[in-house]
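Data deposition worksheet. Section B asks for the primary sequence of the deposited chain exactly as it was used as input, without tags or linkers unless they were present during the calculation. Section C holds the resulting structure in token form. Section D is free text for depositor observations; keep each observation to a single sentence. Incomplete worksheets are returned to the depositor.
Section A, Depositor: J.P.
Section B:
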Amino acid sequence: MIRTSNKITVLIFSIIVTGCMSTGTGNPSSDDSVDRIIDQTSYILNQSSRKDIVILEVPSPENIISEKMTVSALELGARSTAVDYLVKLLAKDNDAVIGVVGRSPRLNKATVKSALKGLVNRSSSGTIYFITDTLYADDLLDIATKVNVTLIPVRSTQNLK
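Section C:
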């Protein structure tokens, strides 16, 4: 009975998380959202000496509950399209430079962390600039060092919307 109950609980949680991740992804035509992404992208481009940066926008849910559930799911090992794309770019071992931008600094950080975990025991290299709500992401730096990726966190309050 306990095993069946646990399976049902996991199934229900998975359905809820999937629903939250696939709906309410924000209004991409919102002027505020577009301005924020442009500001973040410009800031990252100005921080790097290289101009061959791939910019990855992490889609964000409209509401805080869905955002927290998505962050929790990523921290528990769920994958997203953004995570898979980051892993693919960094696993090519071509010293890629990637800027990760989006409406949610917490979701940006969770996406980067999940991608770094996906690179463990794989050949990889590159640099990731990412917008976050904390200047130093100590929990990410250890993982990044192990997978040969340089992390450059950009605090979201540094002249950004």
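Section D:
Residues 4-11, 21-29 have pLDDT under 50 and may be disordered.
Residues 58 and 102 are 5 Å apart (CA to CA).
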